[in-house]
Every structure is written in C-alpha cells, then in structure tokens.
C-alpha cells in the first residue's frame, strides 16, 4: 500500500501544474516559459538535496557512463512530457488537460511489452518480456470512464481547435512520461536513489530546455515577473515534491508491471485535486451530478485496482526477491 499512498500524494502536488499553467496562460504568459522555467528552477533545489545526502559524485559517474542514453530518455521523459502539457494550456482549460492526462493510466500499461521483468521458475529466475496487465487495465478503464463522465458536459462546449490542440499533445505526453521514466529505471539499475535520478534526468534534459528557451526569447521575449514566480512554485510542488514522490513509488515496484500500473493509476486523483484547486483559485463552477458520479467511479476504480494488485502481492514479491 505504501507505493499507492505515495502515488496519491504525488498526484496532489502534480495537480498544481494544471492549475498554475492555466493561470499563467490566462495572464498572458507563454507556454514556452511555463515549461522551461520549471526545470531551470528545479536544479538548485535538487542539487541541495543530493549534495546534502553526499550523493552527487555517484550521479555524475553514472551520467558519464551513458550520456547519450541519459539525454535521449530524459528529453523524452521530461521534455516531451511537460512541454506538450504547457502547450495544451493555451487551448484548453486545466480540468480538461488534467482529465486527458489520465490516459497515461492506459498508456503506461500498453508500454509493458517494451520492457522485461524477472520471473521465478522451478529452474531459477528468468528474464521475460513484460505483458499487458489486462486485469489492472480493466480497473484503469473504470477510472477513465469516471473521468469522461466528469468532463462530458464541459467538453461539449469546446471548439474543434481546442480539442485537437488541447488534447492531442497531452496524449503524446501520456506516453512520453512513463516511457522515459521506465527506460531510466532500467539504465540506472537500482544504483541511484530517487533524488539522484530526478536530478540526473533534469540535467540531462537541459539541451531540450535551452533550445526551447532560445525559441521563446526570440518569439515571445523574456518572461514576466509573475510568470517567473508561478513557474518557481510549479517547480517546487510538481517538479521536485511530486516527481520525487512518484519516482519513489515507481522505484518500490520496479520490475513488476502490474504494481507499476497500479501506481500510475493513482495519478487519476490529479483530476479531483485540480478541480478543487480551480474552484478555489480560479472560480471554476462546481461540478454537476454526472461529474460527481464520475468522481465516485474514479475512486472506486482506484480501490479495485489496489485490491487486485494487493491480492497478487505474495507471488509478485517472490518474483522481485529472486
């Protein structure tokens, strides 16, 4: 249950991303700066944490061993994850982006065949290709159905442009984030803790953010003081706190695709947290009865997902310890 609880707390802090990104867009800020400033601000905070734990040298050594892989999968896991989310904030409200982002529940499960896991047999442990966890995926579909109900009425009022430019980039991000995260877990092989890995991926993704910043400086000019401040808040809440919590949760279930899917399913809570935040901070209207039904489906789907995972825990534990 600990990975599930960590995932829920991560969802709470991730929700600030959708709220603040929408607020910055409504205030006239560019999505380019909303995306890149977050990762620039993350570096000093993460450096302090890693240096305080005296773990910087092992991280730098890991970065030197495979700089190409670190750069590639960090740019995918962080760059192609966050830049599309910020871009979407220019065309769709935060609640729709948060709801669409939950497609990562299914995206993460569909990526399972791209990875390998250790399985214990009578002849000893063997490495096999991961399989799509269909039972967990069924629970994820319940969660997704609840999200659709939550946003059904509001989505009907959006234009085609808002749907395409506000939804499609989020779908891309939903595959990029778990793909980059899992690939980096394989590359690190358990040699780095979660703080080192997040800092390493942030540093390795800097080429992406520097190029994006140059583009923003040429096309939009420098960011405003207000956008800079809000980006700093996003960096702390989502970039540092939420990312570390989520990566810690995924590290605890590394190598078990079913449990990994369960942890990723907890991110459905972002919709509830984002909705509460928008009602409170951005004066968004309260949901109707259908939306409340959707919330209940989300919560129920999460409980069932957790139950199915917990039910198979003894078998899974034997596989991981082998």
TrEMBL record:
Record InterPro entries: EmrE
Top-level taxon in the UniProt lineage: Bacteria
Residues that span the membrane, as ranges: 31-50, 70-90, 96-116, 136-152, 158-177, 198-217, 229-249, 261-283, 289-308
Keywords on record: Membrane, Transmembrane, Transmembrane helix
Membrane as UniProt keyword: yes
Pfam families: EmrE
UniProt key word Amino-acid biosynthesis: no
Protein name in UniProt: Multidrug resistance efflux transporter family protein
Organism, as annotated: Neobacillus rhizophilus
